[in-house]
Amino acid sequence: MKLRIKLMIIIILSLLLVSLFLVISVGIITKKIVVESQNVVAQKIIETKSKIVEVYLDTVMGRLQNLANDEKYIKVTINPDNETLNDISQEFDVIVGSSNLFQTMSIMDENCKVIVADKRVTNSIPNLKNLNFTYRDYCKGILKTQKPYVSASFISLVDNKPAITVNVPIFSQNRMEGFVLSSISLNSLFNGLIDSDKESHTLFLDREGNLTIDTRNNLDKSNPAEKHDKLIELINNKIKNNILSETFIFESDVVSFKKLDYGVIVYLEPSNKVFKIQRNILMVMVYSIIISILIMVGLILVFSKGITNSIEKLSADVVSITKGNLDVQLGKSTIDEVQLLIDSFNRILASMKLAILRTGISKEDIGLGEIIKAKEETEQFNKEILASMGEGLWVIDLNGNTKDVNQAMVKILGYSNKEELMKKSPADITAKKDLKLAETGIRTSLSGKASEFEITIIKKNGKEIKVVIRASPIKDIKGNIIGGFAFIREISKENLTSISKNYEAKDVVDKLVKGTKKKNK
């Protein structure tokens, strides 16, 4: 049977099935589809907003943790002296005065009494060091958890504006001696949450279920910590019952929430704005078309298998001939056009055999053996390059997926084999505090520029190590960027070199990507 006739039959049958499927799909608009659409949209938005909150709070916690680990701050909680207190007070004045983030800074002991604070606080609150703050939610939280803590607060005596109170414990010999306390401005975080989705609202509850952030309020006039309504009670009940991934309708809003390290972020989306029945009809049609195309492709693949078998067999035989096997027996085909092509190859093959017999030319003389040998040598050379490298090598594609790592990288991170490590992405082995820096470096290299930066990565056993990363783009022979690579060196090991002494770093990757062989001189 002619090839074009078979293809026409396949296309006609496929179109009939696609048309039938489209007719059926138009009528499938149910409540389930609407609910699933709500869940998908809400979860995507809450993921974005939770990242905003986490990055903001991680930045603050990181700076306070550095202070809490300082020997001077540990000393002042145990045995304060006037000189140290004066030094820390001046440092706090500088921090508060030079930052739009920190509104107040102070240190409290384990009894929630102020040891030292910036002048803004001491000038605003008379008899500050004689006061006890154990009744405040931030003090209760840090004493209960003995971990970095975020809570709602109202700094009325300082600047009459609501703020977030952030606490980081100070430990000495595994005992909490006190904590660094700071109130931080809500403006940047508040504006970031509003800008990411201006027509919706965001709430943030601390670990004790107190309402810390509420974008429904006017921050200059209201105290978000006082807004405990039925919705907050409902969410707290769900969290207590370990229901952490539910989207539900509350009055006129679609509500989603997610538990973070420092509390819970809640997302409110007006249900009448996003989830229109017309949009669901459109989505059903889009899904129907996509599924129809997939079915049509599947049918073509199934029905065309018999057609392509003969072509694939012929292609395999031709490859075998190019490798020097002139004894290949080309098969038969039920397709007229393919059979004509097979007959032509048989005549060419017979002519080649006859020419070899008459002239005595070998396979090596016609170049087939040399091509095979060159390919094998190139593959072996690439393996030797990877084995000789001293630094860790990490290769990714344009989507950030891991494409290759070398044995040195496996050893640095303490994995048992290469296959185990290649299941990880760069983000998986990067410390949370350096994710943004690592993302910037990767984005820079994938844009065509080399970059060098220091970050902390996490070994398989959980240990953190500091490394220097030099990232560069990978280009094909036409100059198009097809991925990126990075050489990774552990800072603490001075005996590591950037690459094997026999190869320059860029030359190594160029040879691996282009598949070329370095000629012996």
Average pLDDT works out at 77
Question: Which regions contain 5 or more consecutive residues with pLDDT less than 50?
Answer: 494-505, 515-521
Question: Strands of the largest sheet, in order across it?
Answer: 2-1-5-4-3
Q: Could you tell me how far the N terminus lies from the C terminus, measured between alpha carbons in angstroms?
A: 59 Å
| Biggest beta sheet attributes | 5 strands, antiparallel
Beta strand %: 15-25%
Give the tally of β-strands: 15
Cα radius of gyration in angstroms:
34 Å
Could you say which structural class the secondary elements and strand pairing correspond to? Answer: alpha+beta
- Please estimate the helix content: 40-55%
Our count of helices gives: 16
User: Tell me, what's the shape?
Assistant: elongated
Q: Which oligomeric state applies? A: single chain
List descriptors.
disordered C terminus, about 20% strand, alpha+beta, 5-stranded antiparallel β-sheet, elongated
